Amino acid sequence: MKAKLLQSIAAAALAFGAGAALADEDAELVINGEIEIVTKTDAPAHMDGMSTIMSGWRFRDSTTQMMEMDDFDNPAMLAVEDAREKWSTPVGSEDKSCADCHGEPEDMAGVKPVYPKWNEDAGEVRTMQMQMNDCRENRMGAEPWKYDAADALAMEALLSSVSRGMPVDVAIDGPGQSTWEQGKELYYARTGQLDLSCASCHEENYGNMIRADHLSQGQINGFPTYRLKNTKLNGVHSRFKGCVRDTRAETYSPGSPEFVALEMYVASRGNGLSVEGPAVRN
Amino acid sequence: MASGVKPRVKSPSSASAGEVVTIKTLISHPMESGQRKDSDGNTIPRSIINRFTCELNDNMIIDVTLEPAISTNPYFEFEAKVDASGEFKFTWYDDDGSVYEEAKAIEVA
């Protein structure tokens, strides 16, 4: 607590002293000097309300932006490193590792951009974490990971990191369409005592201040995201939960069908942006 | 005893004589401040990295005293002037007495 207070005093002092590091909406993101990330592009055709979509990276101040430009500076890469070890460590009654079926993590490039997606065998839309747990339970004979807990997020971050730079491409038609429509409905439904929908902030007011912070478009191409405020990886569903809570509504749980649908819809709003996760945000 | 502690260093492997190079270091460590209490109300004992040093060819480049207010996974970025080939020696001192070391060679062309 004391540390937090000191930090904010230091931040305030900086803000008054140096004119602060303001959000740089025109900066371009290149990671490790080689992975070019699309952080601003035309909105996908299914979005009526907006013409340009922007990654949350563009709404952060330059010091936070810089942390994502080099993997050594990106604290999320510590979790990615751990996940890489887990990837090749056999677990469960079948004594299998991820690597036994899937090869190197790099072989999974291209997986993250299309999730959440329809799973024909299961007859449902699945997020990456659901699919990972399916592997753990049915192929490895291991305990499923708790939704949005550290283990699951680290693995999701690893799989995201190998797809960085690839365009998000979530299918909105086909058998998953009804789930997508449910997600869209949730996005525009006002909830809570404050009577806010996702769109109230992230579509109608992005770029404006919400207390001391810039509202982003609520894009999730950078998830799982390392947040400076809690110094760990944060999952999409946990973020949703935080937002819904802030409208003073009863929230859904991470991993619930409602949040899966919402994740699918919100992910599709970022179709065209690059996969950026694990990103760094404040 | 802190677990999962792992030092990391990013430094250039070559430089020209007299060049000032940038060195980045990070050690994964919980940096438990000693100010927090667990769910039973007991104080969680302090466990931090309390000192970090970097030497080049036995010359001290930086010697840092770390305090409990420093966050998890302390990261340092600093510069050093390199006159001759040699080895950077990095040392982190833990409250529990552990010492973590890392070395990186640099060649002056």
UniProtKB/TrEMBL annotation, chain A:
It comes from the Bacteria. It holds the Pfam family SoxA-TsdA_cyt-c. Its EC number is 2.8.5.2. Substrate binds at residue 239. Heme c 1 binds at residues 98, 101-102, 135. It is found in: Periplasm. Its cofactor is heme; heme c. Heterodimer of SoxA and SoxX. This is SoxAX cytochrome complex subunit A. It comes from Maritimibacter harenae.
UniProtKB/TrEMBL annotation, chain B:
Pfam families: SoxZ (PF08770). Residues 10-102 form the Sulphur oxidation protein SoxZ domain. NCBIfam families: SoxZ_true. This is Thiosulfate oxidation carrier complex protein SoxZ. It comes from Maritimibacter harenae.
